[in-house]
Write a structure and sequence with these properties.
The chain is mostly beta strands. Helices cover 0% and strands 57% of the residues. It is built from no helices and 9 strands.
């Protein structure tokens, strides 16, 4: 039986990374991911993500989407046509499968996330 997950429980060690150099728009922000759940089939993951200010291009695969809830900070997401949405503390959003555009962290951000990646099937 699987245990319930509470996002305020003790966090595992974070996984650090940075945007790929070929996707950078400005800055080179450090990002930290605390993965609290990963399904046995690898299709779903959930956790906490934090990032310094900066911007980079994003391209979600046709089977990958992300729901998120901003805890602190401010971010802006723009599609390739230039339509933008900003999110701050308390805001939630969904990046749909196949989305292409840019992701900008305006103020250091921390958010909860749930990613479903149907393309991760073995």
């Amino acid at each position: 039986m699987s245990a319930l997950i509470h996002f305020s429980d003790s966090l595992p060690a974070p996984s650090p990374d940075r945007p790929r150099p070929d996707r950078l728009i400005h800055g080179n922000p450090a990002r930290l991911t605390w993965t609290l759940h990963e399904s046995a089939d690898g299709l779903t993951s959930a956790g906490i993500w934090a990032c310094e200010p900066g911007a980079w291009r994003i391209a979600f695969a046709a089977g990958k989407e992300e729901y998120f809830h901003v805890l602190e900070g401010r971010l802006r997401i723009a599609d390739t046509a230039g339509h933008t949405r900003e999110y701050g503390p308390g805001d939630a959003g969904l990046i749909p499968a196949g989305f292409e555009g840019s992701f900008e962290v305006i103020e250091a951000v921390r958010k909860h996330f749930v990613v479903i990646d149907r393309d991760a099937r073995p």
